[in-house]
Amino acid sequence: MKISPQTQLIHAPRLAPQYVSTIQPPLFRASTIIFENTNALFNRHWTDQYDYSYGTHGTPTTFTLGDNIARIEGGKYCLLAPSGLSAINLVNSCFLSHGDEVWVADNIYGPNMEHLLNLKNRYGIQVKVYNPLDVDSFTPSSKTKLLWLEAAGSVTLEFPNLIGLVKKAKAQNILTAIDNTWGAGIAFNAFNFGAEHLSIDISVHALTKYPSGGGDILMGSVVTNNLELHHKLFRTHAIQGISISGDDAAQIQRSLSSMQLRYEHQSQSALKLLNWLKKQQHFTQVLHPADQDSAGHKYWKEVCPNAHSAGLVSVIFDEKYTLNDIRQFCDALTLFKIGFSWGGPVSLVMLYRLKDIRTLATAHLKTGILVRFCIGLEHPEDLIHDIEKALLTLDS
Ligand SMILES: Cc1ncc(COP(=O)(O)O)c(C=O)c1O
To answer: Ligand 1 in contact with 312 (CB < 6 A)?
Structure first.
């Protein structure tokens, strides 16, 4: 029987000829993955990192991206999630059970803290907060399962005593996880850092920031270099149906080749801004790990061999300025746009009240409204000029 044109179209050959070679890897979009025969179906190993059995598990496109993220971060295995927060959730839901204790840095990414407090209320998980600058404030018990780290904290930018905290956790066999979005695998290697070559167990990365680089795609990753941990995460990932779109993966893959250059450029621009901001009388504090007056500077030096410091700078305004004054300042900026996130081409600004985002006392931080600048790819002199102009609203 002659096959109709419609059926012919649906069953047209799928494979690209072997000899075609392109700069970017081919894009696979899939829910269904076709098995060659029943033998292939029955012999599939879905717990194998590279098994192709269904779209939620992965495709060559998502595995390529995952491999590259693991490579950038110095780890071996990677799972991808639809956002950075979803990647954080994957770790929490995989390793925390009723009665467990988790320790979180006081300057951790706010929604991670909120997520944990939600687990506390609903599932009886104890959430303890420590000061990232003070190892003694981390006092684990026999119930402690997980230590969350973030270097640097993404709003107040203190760099934690990473070496001290990780050594203490390791001595007590506590699992360690880092939100590695700030360092992005470029500022330091979470799996091999410090003179003693320490390793954190799990690195979570909001690929939404530097890897995407466009301010347009959401994604997160969970990298480990331990197969057993990876398998545990993998099962949770599978049973929760966490998956990402092939198109999004291809977009991020495309941006990866320029990530290091963008990161370095934004780091350099942030340093230029830092030097200028420090000279302005409107601020009582300028926060940046590479600045010797910022809390945790010595820990940053211990861990970041190439002195990379990402593209974030925060300032604390003199207390004489009211919230309304600072809102006026932010509204007067033209190149800096008001919005959450970072790592994209456009510079962003966000304002915070410290008391809203911290649990512990913050003696090292002045009181006053905090404004965070996220440096984009614009010329740094233009950004300085933008801030200079907006500051005039405070003096008028
Ligand atoms: C430090 C940090 N971690 C995680 C996330 C979450 O990433 P996403 O926006 O992709 O959920 C963010 C987002 O702002 C972040 O700043």
So the answer is: no
List, in order, residues 6 or more apart from 235 with CB less than 8 Å away.
Answer: 47, 94
Q: What mean pLDDT value characterizes the chain?
A: 94
Ligand 1 near 81 CB (within 6 A): no
pLDDT band at 51 (very low <50, low <70, confident <90, very high): confident
CA of 84 to the centre of ligand 1 (A): 5
pLDDT recorded at residue 359: 84
The whole domain housing 189 covers 38-256
pLDDT at site 394: 92
Residues 6+ apart with CB under 8 A from 56: 31, 238, 241, 242, 243
Q: Tell me the mean pLDDT in the region 325-331.
A: 97
pLDDT at 46 > cutoff 80: no
Q: How far apart are CA 116 and CA 124, in angstroms?
A: 10
* pLDDT value for 145: 98
**What's the CATH number where 389 sits?**
3.90.1150.10
The verdict on residue 16 lying in a domain is no
Distance 206 CA to ligand 1 centre (A): 5
Q: State the distance from the centre of ligand 1 to the C-alpha of 208, rounded, in angstroms.
A: 7
Give yes or no for residue 49 having a pLDDT over 90: no
Ligand 1 mutation pick, 202, 209, 348, max ligand atoms within 8 A of CB = 209
Q: Go through 201-240 and write b for each residue having 16 or more CB atoms within 10 A of its CB, e for each that does not.
A: bbbbbbbbbbbbbebebbbbbbbbbbeebbeebbebbbee
CATH code: domain of residue 191: 3.40.640.10
**267 and 248 together in one domain:** no
Ligand 1: residue whose CA is nearest its atom 13: 341
Closest C-alpha among 214, 185, 176, 186 to residue 76: 185
Ligand 1: nearest atom to the Cα of 219 = 10
Say yes or no to pLDDT of 162 above 90. Answer: yes
CB of 181 closer than 6 angstroms to any ligand 1 atom: yes
Q: Please give the DSSP secondary-structure letter assigned to residue 76.
A: S
Q: What is the pLDDT of residue 154?
A: 86
Are 98 and 139 found together in one domain? yes
Report the DSSP pairing between strands 312-317 and 369-374. antiparallel
Q: How far is CA 81 from the centre of its chain?
A: 12
